[in-house]
Amino acid sequence: MGQERVQKLSEEEESFYGYKYLPRKFKIVLTGRAPGKYNLYLGADFSGQRMNRLYRENIDTGTILRELRPLFRTYQKEREADERFGDFLMRVGIVEQERTSAMLHQPLK
Fold first, then answer.
1. Could you give the CA distance from residue 80 to residue 87 in angstroms, rounded to a whole number?
2. pLDDT score of 43
3. What is the DSSP letter of 101?
4. Measured distance CA(70)–CA(89) in Å, rounded
5. Rounded average pLDDT over 36-40
6. What is the DSSP string of the chain?
7. What is the pLDDT of residues 53-84, one digit of tens each?
8. Which residues pair with 37 in a beta bridge?
9. pTM of this prediction?
10. Quick check: 65 and 10 in contact, CB under 8 A?
């Protein structure tokens, strides 16, 4: 077995990875594009009937945090009773309701 490379995380990355146990109402997907780069998908419904949509493409952990924090704050302040995160994003127009399989990987911004 080869020796594993251990990389020290920055404080920002430690903060990001500290979000281990988000409530189930958060439907957020990150897919790796390259070392330290991710695609961020948002907007799925809890039942699995509505898929996530590509929100940001090829971004680092710092950018992920800068994108998610204001969304979380707005969700906390403006959500309706028992409203899940993906449903909230759709209701306020951050992601659109109409979806096709071709739209899944088209960036919103």
1. 10
2. 86
3. G
4. 12
5. 91
6. -PPPP--PPPHHHHHHHT-TT--TT--EEEEEEETTEEEEEE---TTSSS--EEEEEEE-HHHHHHHHHHHHHHHHHHPPTT--HHHHHHHTTSS-S---GGGGGS---
7. 889 999 999 999 999 999 999 999 999 999 98
8. 34
9. 0.67
10. no
Domains and CATH numbers, the chain: 11-105 (3.30.413.10)
Average pLDDT over the chain, rounded to whole? 75
Q: Are 25 and 85 in contact (CB under 8 A)?
A: yes
Amino acid at 16: F
Residue with tokens 């403006």: 78
Q: What is the C-alpha to C-alpha distance for residues 92 and 71, in angstroms, rounded to an integer?
A: 11
> Which residues, including other chains, have CB under 8 Å from residue 10's CB and lie 6 or more apart?
none
Rounded Cα gap, residues 54 and 51, in angstroms = 10
